[in-house]
Amino acid sequence: MSDLIGVVYSKMEPSHAAADFLHRILENLRRHPGQRPRRAGPIILDGENAWEYYYRNGRPFLRELYRRITDDPRCTPSP
Fold first, then answer.
1. Helix (H, G, I), strand (E, B), or coil: what is residue 30?
2. Could you tell me where the DSSP H helices lie in 1-79?
3. pTM of the predicted protein model
């Protein structure tokens, strides 16, 4: 996931990148047979300075991602 943020998403339309990222996060949290559903999906970046390669330093991507997270009833963002 870190490589997606660090390399791939900077070359994509922010709305498409945010949609793909949220889809991947939700897929990772999905319940699998014999497992309890996961309750948390931390997003931890490894300190790369990827934002300089994004349009407007990544603000459109991050705003779109946060909007999608807050609008999705399956998600509860926390600081």
1. coil
2. 2-3, 14-29, 59-71
3. 0.81
